[in-house]
Amino acid sequence: MMTAVERLSKIHDEVMVCGRCRLAEQRRNAVPGEGNASAEMMFVGEAPGRREDLRGRPFVGAAGRFLDELLHEAGFSRDAVYITNVIKCRPPRNRDPRPDEIATCAELYLARQIQAIRPKLLIMLGRHSTSYILSEEGIKVGGITKIHGRRYEIKSFGFPIVAMPMLHPAAALYNAKYKDMLKHDFRILSTQVERLRH
Ligand code: URA
């Protein structure tokens, strides 16, 4: 049996050379994700942006700095969690990921990353990641501003996970109201993790 580290590393290698959709043509680097293979908390964003594409790492631009700040304020370090995206390659000019891109990529990579890590808590940042995860469960998603911070107990990855939608940090960067919502949701995260340990 492969360990979580070995399974993640294999997925990582596959992502780096993936050519399964049109996004492979224009990327500079694929961005598989990074962090702790035995993380209790896994964060799933939307797609790599310009900086992520240049560096091959998730959340390293402005939204990433804000995510780091949110993690820090909630008492978590980036090393303790795992961070990735629904799709692993940057869409041209940061357009929205298309349904076929999400379907192909998430099934091939994100789902296996979740199964390798087996996090207790899955945090979906933004509507694309939220609708992918909840649709696997047969839940139709309304507006993210309505359902952010709710707990969904999901089983579609083969083991129980508490999933929580949140606003995307990039959407909150220049919106004080969204910023407060996100900060509030991060504050309740540590209580959630604590509860899930028992
Ligand atoms: N936005 C995302 O959704 N993911 C990243 O990795 C960076 C910005």
Strand order of the largest sheet: 1-3-2-4-6-5
Largest sheet, in brief, is: 6 strands, mixed
Mean pLDDT: 95
CATH domain topology: Uracil-DNA Glycosylase, subunit E
Bound molecules: uracil
| C-alpha termini separation | 27 Å
Our count of domains comes out at 1
- The structure class reads alpha/beta
CATH homologous superfamily identity: Uracil-DNA glycosylase-like domain
Strand runs, count:
6
Report strand %.
Answer: 5-15%
Walkthrough of the structure:
This protein is an alpha/beta fold and 198 residues long. The protein has 8 helices and 6 strands. A 6-stranded mixed beta sheet has the order 1-3-2-4-6-5, with helices on both faces. A hairpin with a 6-residue loop joins strand 5 and strand 6 (161-166). The longest helix has 22 residues, at 176-197. It starts with a helix and ends with a helix. Bound molecules: uracil. Uracil (URA) binds at residues 45-49, 52, 58-59, 61, 63-64, 85, 170.
Brief sketch in words of this structure:
With 198 residues, the protein is α/β, with parallel strands linked by helices.
Supply the key terms.
Uracil-DNA Glycosylase, subunit E, 198 residues, globular, 6 strands, six-stranded mixed sheet
Layout of strands and helices, then pairs:
Layout: H1 4-16, E1 34-35, E2 41-45, H2 50-55, H3 62-73, E3 82-85, H4 99-117, E4 121-125, H5 127-136, H6 144-147, E5 152-154, E6 161-166, H7 169-172, H8 176-197
Parallel strand pairs: 2-3, 2-4, 4-6
Antiparallel strand pairs: 1-3, 5-6
Helix pairs in contact: 1-4
Bound molecules: uracil (URA).
The site of uracil has 13 residues, from helix 3.
